[in-house]
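Q: what sequence does this backbone want?
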């Protein structure tokens, strides 16, 4: 099933002589049960692509369909709802709240969203990510890699149909990269989620069902074993 579809997306930043076109006629589909990897060098537009795909910002032109619905026609409130209910974001900046402990980052989600992972499944997820001993810590007491894994767990906690992850392994060593790669793949295979990861981490290629490249604003699909 197509979970997210981008049709002919263009994105410019700025106007007049300072205008830069970051995405140029990008079309893309993410399917349930698949892990799609989008590769590209720094500044190529990966975060721009992912935030547009998840309705966090609007394209200059083109359509974004989530579950077949054109979200460009949605009100802010409807977009907030679809994000909360269908999408798990792992943002490049982690977006953890500095004044909440790790446990409370999840408790906060419980206040705004129902149907989250059971305590057992959350505990298993935290163990898998190697952060189960850190629940009473605050973000500034954790390393970058630990915060990154908390952010991943929080994104998965709402059991979203779609997972959008921006450089989820940037701060991780090779062993942790494999853990996260396997986890993302398991989310797709075992739980039938559509998983989209944007990254320049080539170590994630082994886990992907499809690989795309963004270069000079254009997106192209790459063969899997290149
Ligand atoms: N809000 C903005 N206003 C103006 N230019 C922007 C804005 N956001 C991004 N850009 C520019 O758009 C281009 C793409 O940025 P983007 O963050 O999408 O790249 P990226 O591939 O995610 O990079 P990185 O790998 O460093 O995270 C860059 O040249 C960036 O400077
Ligand atoms: Mg980025």
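A:
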């Amino acid at each position: 099933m197509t979970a997210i579809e981008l049709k002919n997306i263009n994105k410019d930043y700025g106007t007049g002589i300072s205008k830069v076109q970051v995405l140029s006629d990008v079309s893309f589909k993410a399917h349930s049960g698949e892990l799609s990897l989008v590769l590209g060098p720094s500044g190529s537009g990966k975060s721009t692509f992912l935030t547009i795909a998840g309705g966090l910002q609007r394209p200059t032109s083109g359509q974004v369909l989530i579950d077949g619905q054109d979200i460009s026609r949605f009100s802010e409130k409807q977009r907030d709802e679809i994000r909360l209910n269908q999408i798990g974001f792992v943002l490049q900046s982690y977006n953890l709240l500095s004044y909440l402990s790790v446990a409370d980052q999840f408790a906060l989600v419980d206040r705004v969203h129902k149907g989250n992972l059971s305590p057992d499944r959350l505990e298993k997820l935290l163990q898998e990510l190697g952060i189960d001993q850190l629940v009473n810590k605050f973000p500034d007491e954790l390393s970058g890699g630990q915060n990154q894994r908390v952010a991943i767990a929080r994104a998965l906690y709402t059991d979203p149909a779609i997972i959008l992850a921006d450089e989820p392994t940037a701060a991780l060593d090779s062993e942790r990269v494999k853990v996260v790669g396997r986890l993302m793949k398991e989310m797709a295979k075992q739980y039938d989620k559509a998983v989209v990861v944007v990254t320049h981490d080539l170590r994630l290629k082994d886990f992907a069902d499809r690989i795309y490249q963004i270069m000079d604003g254009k997106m192209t699909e790459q063969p899997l074993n290149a």
